[in-house]
Inverse folding.
């Protein structure tokens, strides 16, 4: 391992590998047990950078030199290994170094695959990416029933398993299952496997109890070596089934990325190549492709996104000192509709404190409590909570017509109609019952927190607490500081957000905050293009090259046209020169229409004829490219203005919000890296949002 290569990873937390020779009853000779451990507890999982790979290579030298009866690899408590150390990748500016990263992983792991001495992976904990590839490189695998996450998350980042995963997995469990694990799960919000499912797929040979996992793994290995335990391997269909799997993979990739993530497209090609089961050819192709991917801006954007969600999201910029936060022992939710029910369910599950809901009549309250109880029962039905927890959580949720039930609440959030006068009235009524220090939170998506608090005796306790729908799924929480919000209220909001397991971003009290403001701006340009005469299908395809999770008009359906139009009006009042209000969209809403598109039984998309009839289009159509350019310029302009206004601290916060609140893909990097690398940032604002080398390959 060259010093030059190692110097690219100056911050590597080196994962050391230690070899011990064990006497195992029944084994004709020693067993060399290689333990990989970075010296930290489970909160800092073991990864492989140049130092880690060199240490593993040296430990294998020691193991093979002892000529044992078997070699086994295991990890530190709760962690096997979670893949490559990605911290140094952003420093790589030459392809030769990217190539060395790819080749070194193959060279070290392959020693276990081609060993004449039987090799075992005892997967005692989390096994992700390169860690799972290390396990697959061994000839036999056990897994602890207590092991945490098991997955190949690479495609989620805009990468692919590059240390053998695309070649070994399909030849172990078949191409179709490999497509599920490598591509489908990764592109489905990075879905993980549990040990039971992974074993059922054939990734592991046996699942063993956690309490004495190592001892049982050793006993199992002895039986395999002595021929007492057969380890069946399925016959792999390399014909039509493989073709079908590759075609399915292509369909998933096209639907989820629209070609915007080259490395994910490459993953399909590599799985197809694995059909020949030629490791020389497969590993050579993986190495070259991985070197290319590591030198791509899309991968650097993916790593940038990863850093945002793993680091910046955990230390929100501008958040007050957490010591100022007040304890929350009871929560109130005003409203009993769907959003209020989702909020109440989240609060009771995470905080495990009494939650009381209220509404204008008992029937609505009963329906709201019934919804929450039903959702708790669903969680139990999925095995996610125990029967005891079901009873405890249900007992914590109550409803009341009397807002006096909030008298001892420490945190009350409203989820009522999105109208300023309604929200001001609710807060005014609440203030008569609450202590002066109780937090008043609003889930408004666009209205002014300052104005909402303006009539209260204690406006300093009002804070914006904006969730995204579905509440249980999307991790972003926009925490909004009004002009008079004090540090204690804000610190309490951040503390509660963290307890709710949300990623919090501090946002200035500006119309529509971050996500809705950016989405409304770019959606407005698309709708305006349709109004001018652009065919619906042309306008809706315009943003396809970005690889967004859904097209603009499908997003309109998800958000709800009435909600979108309400935000349009809010933004138009604030910034009439940049945000228009479409008369056509208003007619659409007034007609009670929910969607532009209809789908037949075959899944073919067509415009709703009633929508086509009521939409009065002009005679100045645009092309897809023109609509895309228009929308991107609008995004660049709005993002620049938001930063000038101090809506968030930095461009990174805009990106974090779009990734976590709008589901924009990791390989896009949120939005500013895309605007930078497409040249739109400089074209519109005269400068990049991010320095060269941030979310891009260093020059």
């Amino acid at each position: 391992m060259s010093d030059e290569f190692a110097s690219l990873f100056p911050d590597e937390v080196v994962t050391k590998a230690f070899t011990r020779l064990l006497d195992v009853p029944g084994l004709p000779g020693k067993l060399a047990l290689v333990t990989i451990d970075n010296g930290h507890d489970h909160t800092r999982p073991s990864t492989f950078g140049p130092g880690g790979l060199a240490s593993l290579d040296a430990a294998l030298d020691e193991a093979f030199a002892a000529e044992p009866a078997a070699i086994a690899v295991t990890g530190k408590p709760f962690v096997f290994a979670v893949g490559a150390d990605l911290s140094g990748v952003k420093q790589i500016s030459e392809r030769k170094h990217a190539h060395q990263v790819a080749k070194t992983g193959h060279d070290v792991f392959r020693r276990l695959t081609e060993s004449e001495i039987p090799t075992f992976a005892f997967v005692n904990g989390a096994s992700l990416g390169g860690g799972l590839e290390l396990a697959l490189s061994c000839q036999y695998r056990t897994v602890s029933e207590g092991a945490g996450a098991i997955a190949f998350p690479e495609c989620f980042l805009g990468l692919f398993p590059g240390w053998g995963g695309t070649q070994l997995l399909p030849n172990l469990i078949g191409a179709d299952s490999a497509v599920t694990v490598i591509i489908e799960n990764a592109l489905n919000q990075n879905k993980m496997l549990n040990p039971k499912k992974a074993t059922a797929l054939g990734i592991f040979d046996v699942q063993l109890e956690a309490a004495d996992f190592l001892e049982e793994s050793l006993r199992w290995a002895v039986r395999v070596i002595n021929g007492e335990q057969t380890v069946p391997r399925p016959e792999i269909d390399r014909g039509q089934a493989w073709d079908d799997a590759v075609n399915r993979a292509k369909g998933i990739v096209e639907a989820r990325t629209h070609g915007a993530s080259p490395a994910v497209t490459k993953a399909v090609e590599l799985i197809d190549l694995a059909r020949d089961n030629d490791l020389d050819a497969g590993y050579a192709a993986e190495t070259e492709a991985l070197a290319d991917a590591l030198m791509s801006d899309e991968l650097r954007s993916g790593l940038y996104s990863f850093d945002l969600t793993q680091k910046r999201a955990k230390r929100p910029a501008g958040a007050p000192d957490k010591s100022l936060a007040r304890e929350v022992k009871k929560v109130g939710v005003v409203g009993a509709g769907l959003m209020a029910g989702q909020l109440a369910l989240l609060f009771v599950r995470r905080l495990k404190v009494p939650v009381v809901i209220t509404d204008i009549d008992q029937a609505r309250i009963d329906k709201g409590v019934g919804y929450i109880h039903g959702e708790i029962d669903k969680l139990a039905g999925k095995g996610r909570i125990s029967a005891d927890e079901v009873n405890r959580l249900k007992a914590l949720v109550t409803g009341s017509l009397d807002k006096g039930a909030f008298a001892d609440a420490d945190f009350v959030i409203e989820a009522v109609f999105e109208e300023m006068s309604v929200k001001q009235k609710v807060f005014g009524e609440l203030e008569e019952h609450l202590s002066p220090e109780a937090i008043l939170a609003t889930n408004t998506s666009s209205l002014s927190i300052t104005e909402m608090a303006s009539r209260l005796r204690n406006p300093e306790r009002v804070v914006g607490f904006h969730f995204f729908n579905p509440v249980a799924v999307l991790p972003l929480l926009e925490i909004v500081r009004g002009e008079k919000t004090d540090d204690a209220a804000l610190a309490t909001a951040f503390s509660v957000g963290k307890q709710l397991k949300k990623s919090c971003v501090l946002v200035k009290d500006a119309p529509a905050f971050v996500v809705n403001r950016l989405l409304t701006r770019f959606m407005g340009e698309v709708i305006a293009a349709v109004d001018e005469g652009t065919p619906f299908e042309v306008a809706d395809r315009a943003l396809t090259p970005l690889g967004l999770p859904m097209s603009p008009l499908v997003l309109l359906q998800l958000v709800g046209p009435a909600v979108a139009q309400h935000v349009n009006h809010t933004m138009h009042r604030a910034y009439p020169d940049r945000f228009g209000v479409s008369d056509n969209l208003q007619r659409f809403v007034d007609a009670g229409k929910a969607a532009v598109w209809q789908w037949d039984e075959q899944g073919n998309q067509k415009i709703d004829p009633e929508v086509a009839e009521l939409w009065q289009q002009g005679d100045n159509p645009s092309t897809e490219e023109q609509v895309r350019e228009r929308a991107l310029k609008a995004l660049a302009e709005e993002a620049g203005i938001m930063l000038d206004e101090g809506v968030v601290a930095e461009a990174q916060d805009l990106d974090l919000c779009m990734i976590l609140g709008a589901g924009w893909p990791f390989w896009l990097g949120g939005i500013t890296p895309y605007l930078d690398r497409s040249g739109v940032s400089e074209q519109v604002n005269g400068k990049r949002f991010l320095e060269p080398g941030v979310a891009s390959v260093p020059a």
Residues 624-645 form the longest helix (22 residues).
